[in-house]
Amino acid sequence: MDKLKAKLIELFQSGEITLAIGYKQGTRGPRPFFCRSASDVEQMIFSNDYQPNLAVYLTKKEVVKDEKVAIVCTISALRSIAYLARENQIGQSQYKIIHLSPNDELMIFRSPWDIDPYIEEIPSTPSEDDRRVIEMLDAMTSEERWAWWAAQFSKCIKCYACRAACPMCYCTRCIVDNNRPQWIDPWASPLSNMEWQINRVMHLAGRCVGCGACGAACPEGIPVHLLNRKILDNIEENFGITAGLAPREGAVLNTFKPDDKENFIK
Amino acid sequence: MSKIGVFVCHCGENIGGTVDCEKVAQEAAKIPGVEVSTDYKYMCSDPGQTIIKNAIKEKGLDGVVVAACSPRMHESTFRAACAEACLNPYMCEIANIREHCSWVHEKGEATTQKALDLVRMQVEKVKKDLPLSTIKVPVTKKALVIGGGIAGIQAALDIANAGHKVILVEKEPSIGGHMAQLSETFPTLDCSQCILTPRMVEVAQHPNITLYTYAEVEGLEGFIGNFTARIRLKARSVDLEKCTGCGMCTTKCPTKKVPSEFNALMGLRTAIYVPSPQSVPNKPTIDKEHCVYYKTGKCKLCEKVCPTGAITFDAPDEIITEEVGAVVVCTGFDVAPTSEFSEYGYGRYKDVITGLQFERLASASGPTMGEIRRPSDGTVPKKIVFIACAGSRDAAKGRPYCSKICCMYTAKHAMLYQHKVHDGESYVFYMDIRAGGKNYDEFVRRAIEEDGVNYIRGRVARVYERDGKLIVKGVDTLLGGEQVEIEADMVVLATAGVANKGAEDLAQKLHISYDKYNFFAEAHPKLKPVETNTAGIFLAGACQSPKDIPDTVAAASGAAVKVAALFSKDQLLREPVVAVVNRMPPPVFSTCVGCSLCVDICPYSAITMENIKDRAGNVIKTVASINPGLCQGCGTCVAFCRSKSIDLQGFSNEEMYSSVMAALHE
Ligand SMILES: Cc1cc2nc3c(=O)[nH]c(=O)nc-3n(C[C@H](O)[C@H](O)[C@H](O)COP(=O)(O)OP(=O)(O)OC[C@H]3O[C@@H](n4cnc5c(N)ncnc54)[C@H](O)[C@@H]3O)c2cc1C
Ligand code: SF4
Ligand code: SF4
Questions:
Q1: Residue A53, domain extent
Q2: Chain B residue with minimum CA distance to A203
C-alpha cells in the first residue's frame, strides 16, 4: 500500500497525472475516490476484493476528458480494461493502469494489451456464497427456476444501478433508452423487468468478466450478477475460454472455429 | 395520418375458395389509416393492377398493401405498378394470404380471420415504411477467367467476342487442359487437338484477351462488378518477350528423364520444357524442381545456347493485381490415380493404366506415336481389359457419384484399340452403360456390334500379375454371377473423375461454396447451373462435376452470357435491402459506440469501421459502416448490435416491431 501511495504522489508531483481514480473509506465500506492532488493520496485504500469496478469511469467522458488519469485497479478492473481495449473503447496508452497484486507487488501496465499474461494465471471465480446459490438454482426444474427469478425481479425498481455499475455497459444509447421502437416498457412491471434483465445479461454474454459489480450495486439486493456468472460458466464449458479472459482471436460468441461444439443444436 | 390502400386478391379459387375475401376487404377498411379497401378476382391481371394504380392517383395513397400470393411471385409486379402511379415502390407490401393462409388451412371463419391479421400486420408495417431507392454500383467491364481448359477457353473467347476485356489465368505453362491430352473424342471420333488448337491460338491472338500462363490467383476481394484479384505470375525463368520458341534449349538440357505431365507421366521431358508441340504459348518453362542449376547451382547450358538471351535464372515470382467485374471459374478436374486401387495392384503393375494414360498412348502426339503399346515392354497388347466405374459409384471408396464421362470414353477406347490392333481382343467390365446424349448410345452400340468389343456386366474383384500377364478376375452378372478370368496384356481403369487438388483452397480464396467432393457448388442445381452463391462469380466445366466436352462448352458459353449481361450496363441496380448503421447530426453522429464486434460477425465482410473527423481532420468518433455493395441483407448484424444502431432497410426494427405488435394485440 505504501508503495502504491508513494508512486501516486510521485506521479502527481511530476505532473504525469492530474486525476487518480481509486478507493477511500465510505460510511458503508469502500467507495470511489477521485483524488486530484498528492496531498489527498493519503486517504486512498485498496484491496482486490473491493467493489465497485472502477473501470466503469474510463468510458465516461465527463470524468476523464481533459485529465491525465491513473486508475488503481482490482484484478476485476484489469479484466474489464482488457475487454474495453478489445472493443476499442480505450486507447493504447491513454491511462496509467496501476495494480497491487494479492502478494502486495506494485504493477504498472503500459498498455491494456499487457494485462493478459498477468490475468491469464488468475481465473475469475465466484464467491462461495454465489457458488452455493448457483448450485441450488441448477438443481431446480426450469419452472422452479423461472418462479425464483420472477420473484426476485418483481422487486426491481428499474433504477438501472446494475447498468451504471457495469464497465461493459458503455453504450451511449442502451436498448431501454430506445423508443423507436420501444422494445421494453420503461416502467417497472413484472414483464418489463424480466425483459430488461434478459436483455442486459444477453448483451453481456461473452463480454462480462464476472466482477459482480452489478449485483453489488442493486439497492433491492437482487443477485443479478448470478445470471452473468452462469453464462461465464456455460462459455467455459462449451468453448474452453477461461472466465474473464478476453480472447485474442476475437470475442468468443461472435467468432467461429471449425472445432466449436455444436451440441446445443438439437 | 397515412392513406393506405388495401387490395385483396381472390387468386381465382386459390384464395377465394377458402378465405372470404370480401369480408377481409370490408374489415380492413376499418383499420385506422386505411383509405380504400377492395377485393378483386385477379389483382395481378391488367385490370387488377389498374384498380391499384387508379386508387393511388385518385385517393393520393401513400402506402399499398396487396393481400395475395407470396411476395416471391408478384411483389415485383405490384411494386412496378405502384411506381407507374408515382408511389415509391418500397411503400408497397404484400400480405401473403395464399401460401401462408388459404393453401394451408380449411375454409372457415378462423382462416378469414387469419387473412385479416396478415393484412393488419402489413398495414402497420407500411405505416412505418420509408421510401427507398435502388442502389447503384459501378461495374468494371473486365472478366477474370480462371483455368485455361476448354471451358476457360470458350468462356474467354465468348466474353472477348462480346466486346469485353478478359484476363485468362492458367496455372500450367500452356492452356488446353485435359482436352489437349485426348486422342480422338466421342461421339464423333474427331481429333481432339485438331478442334482445340485453333481455339487456343485464337485466345493467344485475341486483342481483348490477356493471357497469363504459369500463374495462379492468390486472392480475390470485393464484390460483384468490383473485384480485385491478386495474381501470382510464377517465375518461368524464360523471358517470353525475348524467347522465339526455337527450342534450342530443350535439345541441350542435360536433364532428360523427367516424367512428362502432359503425357500423363508415361513419356519423358527435359527440365526446360514445352508441354507439347501445340502448346500456347509455345515457349519453354524451367521446372525448378528438376533443373540442375536450381538444384546444384551449376549448369546454365540453356542460357549458353539461347540465341536471344531469354533465359532469366533466379527471377522472382511477380504478383500483380487486376480490377475485374466478374469471375468465371473453369479449373476443371482430374482423374483418380491407379495407386488408389488395392484390388488392382496399387499402381504397382506398369500395364494397369488410367483412361487418361490410354488417351496418350492412342494419341499421335503421344509417347508411342499413337500405337497402343504396353508401358512395361513396348509390345502390342493382344488382349486388353477396360474396367469402368473404377472408384465411381462406390460408396465404400467415398465416391457414390457417377463420373459420367467414363462409359463413353471407355467405349471410345475399346473402339480405338480395335481400330489399331485388328487381331486384338477387348473386354469391357461395366455396371451399367450410361450413354445418355445425342448419338451417344449409337456410339456404344457401334463399339459392341461393329467393332466386336466384348461387354461383360460385372465388377472386377481383382487384378494380379502372373508370368507377364495380368489376370483379371470378375463375375458376369448376366450369366448368373459366373466367375470370369481373363489373361490380359493390359488393363485400363476408367478411374473416377475427381476435383483438382487445389480446388478447396481456391474456393476459399474466392469465397464460393463447394460440395463434399470439393467440386464447386452451383447456386441452384436446375435454374442457376452456372452461377455460384457469390454474386458475380460464375462456374463452367468439369470443376463443377465431371462433364464431357459438349456440356463443358455449353456451360462455358452460358457463363459467358451471364457475364456479358452483367457488363451490358454501366451500373448495377440492387435492391436496397441492405443494412445501414444510423447517422445523425453532431454531437452524436451515430448511436453506434464503435465496439466493432459486428465487424467479425458479418458473413460477407461488409462491415468496416469508419472515422468521423472534424474539419481539421481530427477523429471525433469511430463508428461502424456497411458497404452496400457487399451487404447481402441477411440481418445478422441487426440482431447482434446491442445499441440497435443498425437497421435493415425495408425491414427496419420499427417496421418489424409494428408488424409483430399488430399481430399480438388485435
Ligand atoms: C480419359 C478421358 C477421356 C475423355 N474423352 C472425352 C471425349 O472423348 N469426349 C468428350 O466430350 N469429353 C471427353 N473427356 C472429358 C473432357 O476431358 C472434359 O470434358 C474437359 O476436359 C473439361 O474441360 P475443363 O476446361 O472444364 O477442365 P480441364 O480440361 O481439366 O481444364 C482445366 C484447366 O484449368 C487449369 N487449372 C486448374 N486449377 C487452376 C488454378 N487454380 N488456377 C489456374 N488454372 C487452373 C488446369 O491446368 C487446366 O488447364 C475425357 C476425359 C477423360 C479423363
Ligand atoms: S454498429 Fe453496433 S455492434 Fe457495430 S460497432 Fe456499432 S455498436 Fe458495435
Ligand atoms: S445485413 Fe448481413 S451482410 Fe449486411 S452488413 Fe449486416 S451482417 Fe453483413
A1: 2-119
A2: B642
